[in-house]
Amino acid sequence: MASFFQAAWLVTRKDLLIEARTREIAYTTLFFAVSCVLVFSFGFVREGRPLEDAASGILWIAIAFSGTLALGRTFERERQTETLRALLLAPVDRPALYVGKLVGVLLLLLVVEVIVVPLVALLFQARVFAFPLLMASLLTAGTIGFSAVGTLFAAMLVRARTRDVLLPVLLYPITIPVIIAGVRGTAALLGAEPDLPIARLWLSMLAFFDVVFITLALWTFETVMTE
Amino acid sequence: MDFTSLAFIDVTRIYGRRRALNRVSLRCEAGEIVAVLGPNGSGKSTLLSIGATLLAPSSGEVRYGDTTGPADRVALRGRIGFLAHDLYLYPELSAAENLDFFGRMYQLANVEQRIAGALERAELTDRSSEMVAGFSRGMRQRLALERALLHEPRLVLLDEPFTGLDDRATIALQARLADLRAAGCIVLVTTHDAETIEQIVDRAVMMQSGRLIPVEDGSGSLRERCRKLSALRV
Questions:
Q1: Type and span of the H or E element at B220
Q2: What ipTM does the predicted assembly reach?
Q3: Is residue B119 part of a domain?
Q4: Which of B87, B88, B149, B150 should we substitute to test contact with A (largest number of A Cβ atoms within 10 Å)?
Q5: Helix or strand (DSSP H, E) at A49
Q6: Domain count, chain B
Q7: Lowest mean pLDDT among A104-118, B29-43, B63-77, B145-159
Q8: What angle, 0 to 180 degrees and rounded to 10, lies between the N-to-C axes of helices B137-149 and B111-121?
Q9: B97 reaches A (C-beta below 8 A)
């Protein structure tokens, strides 16, 4: 078990080191997320007043769209240099590679959220910091669920010619429960009268989705990576 | 886990409608260098990828000593060193970082010591902290070879290992292959350049359209014998 987590950590550390040097995924993902929020703010904020409940939806759209971009790129890098095959040759349980990649994407998206959430708060006058712990839990749980499915699909599609098109086509329908739970949970917190029990209910739903998606991904990763 | 032989038994691999390998059988023993010759697209790389457990055969099986590929895969992969045509190096990492990453993935003891030795053999000690992206093909090839051999594998699979090497590096690689044979490794080398490898191989086989043909000992150079063999088959 120790070697499993050690291998996962090595993959995450390597991805973060490469990202720190190139900043390719971080910049593109962040730029895309910020652009997304800005464009929506022009549409949904009139005379300084945002549309009711728009903030939560826009926040999750920005996370989902920019997350798709990050997921595609993380395996594209391994494909270009064929290093994915070197990882598959290593004497470690292959699901450890999945966990390593997942944690790398997750950390990257959490960094993006650190920038995007205050931007949404500013542009949509949303009280995102009123319940910081619950808000952070909703965002983290939702991002884990989205990334768990996305990492698996990105790995599966790494050799497909149309992977850029197929990834969102496959990813969004499967992650709809996560996105709905994230949007409704966040909306419950950002409403005029915050509904904490409802937010907690959606949070527990997200935790359930996370467990299901990660279990399924760990179970199938070895099979989907064997050519 | 250890083994002293590698056997491909009636291995077939089909990609869509194309048969890349057609009932290939080959046995290699420890302390033997076997050359797999043949033109581009003849199935050499597919054979090596199957031997490395990266590809599963469509039919037939590969035996590593007494065990088959699917049994105890994790331990088996720890005994295989594979240098592919794509070099499996991260261009954004330095030479030392690449070796360190793979050394730790293989859970090797004395990683620093092994890395220092590998860099010395690759003649890259002075450039160990430089990014691989700035290396020439020959330098990358030498580093990739050391990456593949860092964990002292029993089975060494080398796909066109002489690509991009200058004369001095070619001679060094030939010596390295002889050392591997002396150390009891099973070495399988693919190449389309029979001349470079003739002096060091114990025997050669030829791949043609997915079929494996043994190259018999006889008069003439290895290249001439291969040429005659392929002319006969056409």
A1: none
A2: 0.88
A3: yes
A4: B88
A5: strand A49-50
A6: 1
A7: B63-77
A8: 140
A9: yes
Please give the single-letter amino acid code of residue B48.
L
- Locate B103 and state its tokens: 């050394």
Output the six-digit token pair for A74: 């993380």
Q: Which of A3, A21, A87 lies nearest to residue B92, judging by beta carbons?
A: A21
Contact status, residue A22 vs residue A77, Cβ threshold 8 Å: no
Distance in Å, alpha carbon of A159 to nearest chain B alpha carbon: 13
Is the pLDDT at B186 greater than 80, yes or no? yes
Enclosing domain of residue B131 = 91-144
Q: Which residues contact A47 (CB under 8 A, 6 or more apart)?
A: none
Report in angstroms the alpha-carbon separations of B74 from A7, A196, B37, B114, B155: 13, 47, 30, 22, 14
* Amino acid sitting at position B34: V
Q: Which of B80, B88, B105 sits opposite A10 (nearest CB)?
A: B105
**Is residue B25 situated within a structural domain?**
no
Number of residues that this document lists for chain B:
234
Distance, CA of A116 to CA of A122 (rounded, Å): 10
Test mutation, A22, A89, A94, A227, chain B, max B CBs within 10 A:
A89
Q: Which chain B residues are closer than 8 Å to A93 by Cβ? A: 74
Amino acid at B68: T
Nearest beta carbon to residue B54 from set A3, A18, A227: A227
0.80 exceeded by the pTM? yes
* Helix A196-225, helix A132-156: angle, nearest 10: 20
Residue B69 lies inside a defined structural domain of this protein = no
- For residue B80, is it within any domain? no
Q: What does the alpha-carbon distance between residue B144 and residue B124 come to, in Å, rounded to a whole number? A: 12
The rounded percent of chain A whose pLDDT value lies above 90 is 70
Size of interface A-B (CB pairs under 8 A): 66
- The dihedral through the CA atoms of A59, A78, B50, A98 has a sign that is negative
Per-residue pLDDT band for A151 (boundaries 50, 70, 90) equals very high
Cβ A37 vs Cβ A58: under 8 Å:
yes
Q: What residues of chain A lie within 8 A of the CB of B82, using their CB?
A: 89
